[in-house]
Amino acid sequence: MGSDFMNPSTNSQGRIVGVFAKQPLAGQAKTRLAQTTSPEWAQRVAQALLEDSLDRFSRIQASRAIVYAPATAAAFFSPLAQGRYDARRHGYSRIIAVGADSPTLPIDYVEHAFTALEAHDVVIGPAQDGGYYLIGGSLQELAIFDDIPWSSTRVLEVTIECVQKASARLALLPPWYDVDTAADWAMLCDDVRARRLAGLDPGVPRAEQLMQGDV
Length: 215
What we know:
The chain is α/β, with parallel strands linked by helices. It has a single domain (2-212), classed as Spore Coat Polysaccharide Biosynthesis Protein SpsA, Chain A, CATH 3.90.550.10. It contains seven helices and seven strands; from the N terminus they run ββααβαβαββαβαα. The longest helix is centred in the first third of the chain and has 19 residues, at 39-57. The two termini are 30 Å apart. 40% of the residues are buried. Mean pLDDT is 87; it is low at 1-11.
């Protein structure tokens, strides 16, 4: 896993957002979606969600970094960063990590997370699949990721148990959804369609093009 260092973002105020992302490769991207569609379609979805997510999170007033896998994917992620993501400075007092699987996540949720860290040690945004779309912490180092059953429906539950064992102050955000399966993709399609009917811009142009069969 690597970090893509780009030009400094402004008004960080001791805040940093790290976007966790995998290079979308056919056969390795969105494997649960690929099981009911195809590896090529899953790759296209992953690429669209990644680019839409980077556009959305680039609006956050904080320093920004892309934390990516595999570590050899710097040449892939560098043009996507477009100078909007930076991790050169250290000493951040509030650190937030978000995934690239929730492209419609309201920016307000991330702002609420930063605010929560003024009075809490850990903030978590629960995902509907039993994991989380966001996790953040302050400067205090906590051993809260030991023995987490990753890729299971108990990720959130076990992480909260670890936070409680560490006697850390926990804040929870409203639930949101990740896009990992065909059912999740259908949920995103319904979400985008409803926003369009309401006269709102869903803010996911690449994913919307896939839904319309334009690419």
